From TrEMBL:
Protein EC: 2.7.1.156, 2.7.7.62
Gene field: cobU
Name of the featured protein: Bifunctional adenosylcobalamin biosynthesis protein
Chemical reaction(s) catalysed: adenosylcob(III)inamide + GTP = adenosylcob(III)inamide phosphate + GDP + H(+); adenosylcob(III)inamide + ATP = adenosylcob(III)inamide phosphate + ADP + H(+); adenosylcob(III)inamide phosphate + GTP + H(+) = adenosylcob(III)inamide-GDP + diphosphate
One Pfam assignment: CobU
NCBIfam families the UniProt entry points to: PRK05800.1 (NF004469)
Record family assignment: Belongs to the CobU/CobP family.
Length: 170
């Protein structure tokens, strides 16, 4: 595994699957978190996820600058897990950042990464067309980000109902 992209719907088991793939590898593990604890419920979710990871894991918070976080983690870890690209995209959109620039920097950092890398994202394109312009733009941007990430990944897995399905790779 060099670059693995794991995609799935909410509560599909994608993060659990990605974590299990990473933990099966030897060495120091880095978790790049894109979520921010902006309310008590999210803080609780983050705490549960942190507790679920063991002492092999170091954490890097990267709500915006994912490319720099990848470079930092690569210097200290043997395997990197990024969870999740969809939250990162949402953070960028809400901060009105230049998405094309941020995604291009991310793609370059992924291409330069010399350790196994697992990236997680939500598949948001299975539902109905959202009613407002921001939600439609988010759905579109997420779909394009997922396509670009899948293109640079060596392996792509879709997880549904806790079951992984290989979309790309040997």
């Amino acid at each position: 595994m060099s670059r693995l992209f794991v995609i799935g719907g909410a509560r599909s088991g994608k993060s659990r699957y990605a974590q299990s793939r990473v933990e099966a590898l030897p060495g120091r593990l880095a978790f790049i978190a894109t979520a921010e604890a902006q309310d008590a419920e999210m803080a609780d979710r983050i705490a549960r996820h942190q507790a679920d990871r063991g002492p092999r894991w170091m954490s890097v918070e990267a709500p915006m600058d994912l490319a720099a976080a990848l470079h930092r983690a690569e210097a200290e870890a043997d395997v990197i897990l990024v969870d999740c690209l969809t939250l990162w995209l949402s953070n960028l959109m809400l901060a009105e950042r230049d998405l094309d620039h941020a995604v291009a920097e991310f793609e370059a950092a992924v291409s330069e990464c010399c350790v196994p890398l697992v990236m997680v994202a939500n598949e948001v394109g299975y539902g109905i067309v959202p009613m407002n312009a921001l939600a439609r733009r988010f759905r579109d941007e997420a779909g394009w980000l997922n396509q670009r990430t899948a293109a640079i990944a060596d392996e792509v897995m879709l997880v549904a109902a806790g079951l992984p399905l290989k979309l790309k790779g040997s």
